[in-house]
UniProtKB/TrEMBL annotation:
<keyword id="KW-0472">Membrane</keyword>
<dbReference type="InterPro" id="IPR000863">
    <property type="entry name" value="Sulfotransferase_dom"/>
</dbReference>
<keyword id="KW-0812">Transmembrane</keyword>
<dbReference type="GO" id="GO:0050659">
    <property type="term" value="F:N-acetylgalactosamine 4-sulfate 6-O-sulfotransferase activity"/>
</dbReference>
<feature type="domain" description="Sulfotransferase">
    <location>
        <begin position="253"/>
        <end position="517"/>
    </location>
</feature>
<dbReference type="Pfam" id="PF00685">
    <property type="entry name" value="Sulfotransfer_1"/>
</dbReference>
<comment type="similarity">
    <text>Belongs to the sulfotransferase 1 family.</text>
</comment>
<keyword id="KW-1133">Transmembrane helix</keyword>
<keyword id="KW-0808">Transferase</keyword>
<dbReference type="GO" id="GO:0019319">
    <property type="term" value="P:hexose biosynthetic process"/>
</dbReference>
<dbReference type="InterPro" id="IPR052654">
    <property type="entry name" value="CS_Sulfotransferase"/>
</dbReference>
<protein>
    <recommendedName>
        <fullName>Sulfotransferase</fullName>
        <ecNumber>2.8.2.-</ecNumber>
    </recommendedName>
</protein>
<dbReference type="InterPro" id="IPR027417">
    <property type="entry name" value="P-loop_NTPase"/>
</dbReference>
<feature type="transmembrane region" description="Helical">
    <location>
        <begin position="78"/>
        <end position="97"/>
    </location>
</feature>
């Protein structure tokens, strides 16, 4: 059925337009129209039947009476043209904005570093990654290549501001004032017949007391409750009874795997724990020194109650039970032999994460933290040994991005995040020292990718102000991946561990790599060549200094 665009009635079935009463001329009278029937309304007809849509649909004729058919048609075309122009404009604006998004951000960041506010960082999980994987070359966007000179100017500015200034180490009394409870719990002397730092602590509870009732690790994490359920069952069997008093053996770690994330620390941990003389904390990464003792579970969730040092020591109870069994053995008691079991802890945040200091420590100098993690570790155990696993910082950053980014991961997205992070870092070093920027919580959480974690030498130099160089073993993931037996022997020698049988050594060195890159991340391919060139330029002065400190040019990472 067709309708006349000018008239109040539908066309007759023969589709002859002359049958339309309204189209006979401008003298049409609603009173005479056999369809209008004297009403100033236009009913809608379909298939000769009047319809009602939802309610009575009415169209007033007054609006059309001033138009003739040709004018209505012209106005309809004009509206269509205007609508098309609007759509075309929206499409062009969308295209321009998308192009701007994929270009390089060259406008200086308005980021203000005046106040160091907090926002949470991510928990660290490390990986051996896929050092032997090969990727197909990705297609290159020419716009990234064209903007490289502008980004190089940012890097040159950062490089010009680099100064490796030795920090002032706080004295012991200052540390005691900051953490009096820790110093009241941990003694300054340990058992002489144990290689691992341990001591006996009087236990005040009775048989009905739950020794782990208030442990924050058990309260806040369901996956740790199984461990503490086991500890509750065996707790009383391992108490030492002397003169009507009960004592429990407490232990600190003998060594720490302190970093870095995405550099293979998980794989090193999994292999090292297979050695018969090595034990680890009940949780691989307690993150107590860097986060939990400040009440940080997840930084994005804000602060919770601070985990006391007793909660941290509870994590070593399983290992302490085994050490106690050795100490009470005849060989140790009567023949003066040593306990050779040692305990390790493998939080990969220990080396670099001092982000919480601003909320707890006053009297900072020009934005630099007055106290660092290593100050307290050294105060309690000055003979501790430290293991650091590093990799090419350029590859580490990309692996870190692939592991922690949740959506829209791509080489192009990584490039944009790198550029934005460089701009933020440049803004900071223009006003603050390198150390202040590296330990700046606000900056570190504002950067889309964790550039600062790859500034290995900044952290290492700060650790060397507290510990001697022979207490720190620095390894490269590239060497570990190519010759695992060699690196594991270096670790065994560093920790002064006993010899292994061929079967034990094969179990440690030939087991599959741990925590490798996920298949879905591998499919994304490598970073863009321009991104790699930018990061190479950024990390070069830091790698050069690192190679000088370690007297090893392998840490220049020229071949990767």
């Amino acid at each position: 059925m067709r309708y006349c665009i000018n008239c109040c009635i539908h066309l007759l079935p023969n589709d002859l337009h002359r049958q339309c009463f309204r189209c006979r001329g401008p003298d049409h009278n609603n009173q005479k129209c056999p369809v209008c029937k004297g009403e100033n309304k236009i009913p809608l007809y379909t298939e000769s039947k009047q319809m009602k849509w939802l309610a009575v649909l009415e169209v007033r004729t007054d609006h059309c009476e001033s138009w003739n058919g040709f004018f209505c048609l012209r106005k309809g075309k004009l509206c269509s043209l205007m609508f098309g122009l609007i759509i075309m404009t929206l499409v062009m604006v969308s295209y321009i904005l998308t192009g701007a998004k994929h270009g390089l951000l060259l406008i200086p960041s308005p980021f203000n570093y005046g106040a160091f506010a907090s926002n949470p960082s991510l928990m660290d999980n490390e990986s051996l990654s896929d050092m032997k994987d090969h990727y197909q070359p990705s297609k290159m966007n020419i716009s990234y290549v064209k903007d490289y000179p502008s980004i190089k100017l940012i890097i040159d500015t950062i490089t010009s501001k680099i100064e490796f200034i030795t920090r002032q180490r706080p004295d012991l009394e200052e540390l005691r004032k900051q953490e009096p409870h820790m110093f009241s719990v941990i003694p300054n002397k340990f058992l002489p017949n144990s290689k691992n730092p341990c001591w006996y602590e009087e236990y005040q509870g009775n048989t009905t007391t739950d020794p782990y009732a208030t442990n924050s690790y058990a309260l806040y994490s369901k996956r740790f409750r199984i461990i503490f359920d086991y500890l509750r069952k065996v707790f009383w069997n391992h108490l030492y009874h002397y003169k009507d008093k009960h004592y429990r053996l407490r232990c600190l770690p003998h060594f720490y795997i302190i970093g870095q994330p995405k550099c293979g620390t998980t794989d090193l941990y999994d292999r090292l724990r297979l050695h018969p003389e090595v034990r680890f904390s009940a949780i691989k990464e307690p993150h107590w020194w860097t986060r939990k003792r400040f009440g940080i579970i997840r930084l994005r969730d804000g602060f919770h109650d601070r985990y006391p040092v007793e909660d941290y020591l509870d994590l070593f109870d399983i290992a302490a039970h085994q050490i106690q069994s050795v100490l009470q053995s005849e060989a140790v008691r009567e023949h003066g032999k040593m306990n050779n079991i040692i305990i390790g802890e493998a939080s990969a945040s220990t080396m670099w994460d001092n982000n919480a200091w601003i909320f707890f420590y006053d009297n900072s100098t020009e934005g630099e933290p007055p106290f660092l993690i290593q100050d307290f570790i050294h105060a309690f155990h000055p003979n501790a040994k430290l293991i650091i696993m590093l990799r090419d910082p350029v590859e580490r950053l990309y692996s870190d991005y692939l592991y922690f980014a949740s959506a829209n991961k791509s080489a192009e997205d990584f490039h944009e995040k790198v550029v934005e992070s460089l701009q933020l870092f440049e803004s900071c070093v223009l006003d603050y020292s390198l150390r202040a920027c590296v330990y700046n919580n606000t900056l570190n959480n504002a950067m889309p990718v964790r550039l600062q974690v790859g500034l290995y030498v900044v952290y290492l130099l700060d650790w060397l102000t507290v510990f001697n160089k022979d207490q720190i073993l620095v390894l490269r993931l590239e060497d570990h991946a190519s010759n695992m037996r060699y690196t594991m022997h270096k670790v065994f020698q560093f920790l002064d561990l006993g010899p292994l049988s061929e079967k034990q050594e094969a179990l440690i060195t030939k087991s599959p790599a741990s925590n490798t890159r996920r298949p879905e991340d591998r499919s994304l391919g490598p970073m863009l060549p321009t991104t790699k060139a930018i990061l190479r330029d950024f990390y070069r002065p830091f790698n050069t200094k690192l190679a000088q400190v370690l007297f090893d040019d392998a840490f220049l990472w020229k071949r990767t």
